Amino acid sequence: MKPILEVENLRVSFPAPRGRVEVVKGINFSLGAERLGIVGESGSGKSMTGRSILRLIQRPGRVTADRLQFEEVDILSASDRQMRAVRGARISMVMQDPKFSLNPVITIGDQIAEGLVAHRRLPRAQVKEKTLEMLRAVRIADPEKVVKLYPHQVSGGMGQRVMIAMMLIPEPTLLIADEPTSALDVSVQAQVLDIIDELIRRNNMGLILISHDLLLVSAYCDRILVMRNGEVVDECAARDLAASTHPYTRGLLAAMPHLNETRDELPMLDRRSQAT
Amino acid sequence: MNILEISDLNVSYGTSQVVHDVSFSVKEGEIFALCGESGSGKSTILRAIAGLATEWTGAISVLGRARERGLSARFASECQMVFQDPYASLHPRKTIDATLSEPLRIHRVAGNHGDRIEEVLDSVGLDRRFRFRFPHQLSGGQRQRVAIARALMLQPRLLLLDEPTSALDVSVQAEVLNLLKKLRREQGLTYVMVTHSMPVISFLCDRLAVMRHGRVVETADVEQLKADRMTDPYSQELVALSRGRPDQKSEKTQ
Question: Could you give all domains of chain B from N- to C-terminal order, each with its CATH number?
């Protein structure tokens, strides 16, 4: 399998009063047409990893890598113009909260079409048809009505489905989903992830799913990277997650309450080793 | 003794009624959970008890006294609320010390405020060196501890918890859940907690009410939840959703 994305020794740093602080400390992975999960706690560098792939980290943040290759594009040396052709069209990103990532003054139909119009010249009728088709693909029942609505008129789960439609309409080869469901209810979460899953499989795309929820990632990914303090501490196939022997992964799994909980106290991670 | 009794509660915001005919009671020392999806009215019930939602009919009584609408000093010393997002519920320009001493000042509590603050910081497991820091210098879990400490300052007997851990990481969630359990054991507190996480209920709570569209569809013991013996179809669905995630979704879609 030819990799879509290759990352070698990726480092992200930000200036701090006492020199630069590295938030991603040299991580390596490659991704084919598969579903990769990145899990970790807040501050582990998982979102920074996702953002640096799209070159969304701006100064004073600094991204370095021995290799950051997306298909034929070398992301670190590409011009801004080349990056604009990649972003949205070939790599797209679903962010956490639809309330903040949809434009409140543009109708849903126009927002979805924007991704298409920005990258390709198409007759208006065809744009409209594709928009409706995309909304149906994310299981929105009445797309003709929904295209005319504004973001505040739809629920959170529907907003997130609109985001997904918007991100997938230019048919990208890689989708980065950064906590796509943490702002949603449990009942809507499964729906949204099922939709992402189905579209990824149908279009033979790569997926990077970034989340702090181990169970969710293990249910929707093929492979999992566990990050802590900017480093990848554990890597395993999703189905082997429960059998992982790494102490940090075990700690995260143990800290979650179960539906049939019998423990009187939940084990906590030892933070002292981290506070350096 | 029932520390909280609610009967036939209806709550509206303007012209839309969001809670319909809700009745339940909570015994002293119990942890009672309200669960359901967004918009089911669970947080609104807490807001009505706390006096933040004032358009309600029915009866709410706390510690045997009927609750009037709105805020009152006496009620605040008996019942306090902890909000979901510790990043939003602490004043960014006040030190932890100022945040914690404010309730004491408002209620004109006599005695040494500094001692009380250090005592409460100890009980929520925060080091005393945090006392003169600002919220931005604290992590999410530490902030939620401060929010809980603030609620405990006046030694209330009932705490209303609105999704106290849903903005936190799993490992931090474990710390806060353990803390809540410890505080109940040590101080005999009663909690009414809003959450959408069934595993959290299973760990922490004694009884739960499942809500949908502003109505309680089922009230059950946590043992029923653990044994998967919820009777209402909607509650069963919620339980199945939180149980269903680990089994591989991929097989279904293939």
Answer: 2-89+156-246 (3.40.50.300)
